[in-house]
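Quick one before lunch.
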Amino acid sequence: MKIPLIDLKAQVQSLEPKLSEAVVNTLKEANYILGSEVKKLEQSMAELTGSTYALGVASGTDALVLSLRALGIGEGDEVITSPFTFFATAEAIAMVGAKPVFVDVEEDTFNIDTTKIEASITEDTKAIIAVHLFGQPADMDEINEIAKAHELFVIEDACQAIGATYKGRPVGSLSDIACFSFFPTKNLGGAGDGGMVVTSDEHLFKLVRALRAHGSGQNGLEAYRDILGVELKDHEETGDSVYQGAKYYNYLVGYNSRLDELQAAVLNVKLPMLAEWNQKRRFFAKEYDQSLSKTNLVTPFIKPERESVYHMYVLKSEERDKVVKNLNDRLVATGIYYPVPLHLQKAFEYLGFVEGDLPVAEYLSKRTFAIPIYPELGIEERSYILSSLKDSL
Ligand SMILES: *Cc1c(COP(=O)(O)O)cnc(C)c1O
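Model of the pyridoxal-5'-phosphate complex:
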């Protein structure tokens, strides 16, 4: 039996003809930039994440960049994050001109080890990006406490954790500003790139709203006012003959980073299914946990009072390469997340890390692998995955 790591075609089939209808209607509507579908998805995301505001952006990476920019982070600043995550978490820090500062992770949860954060704080530290890796929320109470003591901002990289909860609260509501991705293979995936920023801070909302569209027009003016912290009258009142607040009047150097209307239409069809899909992932994870408990594989560890959405089901093995090869020979796909911790990536060579600096992340990068856990898996496929895996040990 051939089993992919994720089956996007099966998901599309399960939602037809709704998906095609939504796409065709959006096409005919021809309101392609920040139309009603984006607005609708933003409302749903604000609700889902317990946040006041949500803004659709072009990708999860851009969500991180815009969040950092909104917090005023740039050249000369340092941002603490995990070295065991997708590259974009740290890439975004570098993109705004700041320095990524990597703090090692916990061997069992794969998330940042909060006991090691304080040693890495300097007078240039401005923020911590907490990553909820593979769907499990990071230690947000500890992170927020450290941030408060040192006057740092906290950003959640919730790209892998849409729908997850921490002490009963949804991810996205546990920090100053949070980032989501709709990359096709994420738990809620579009038909292309997409992302979302959520926050309950009006100032940050205004900044991201302006930055995602060239810092222009009325949204640009409102952000500009907020940054300056002064009363700036509306264009109609100023009598300014140059700045009249329409489209081509720019107040900030921003980005072209809007969530596409067609993507939003697709995502609006999929979003009502998310809770059920996440539920299935959790159910399958429990099945896997039980079935693999007596093997030499280490199954995922989820801390109490948090609900993972198992974006990935990641196992550890002392003989990973052998197990993965045997499993692939049986046509069960696997994924390695992540083969190179970020501090050892060539792109971050300039930061000066060497092997041995962050031993837990390095240890994990040689032992972890993911097996399929997508919600469309049937019972026979799941048993095949498990029996193949046991035969591969
Ligand atoms: C996917 C992902 C991103 C980036 O999202 P894109 O939409 O692909 O830009 C950032 N951080 C993490 C942890 C991710 O998994």
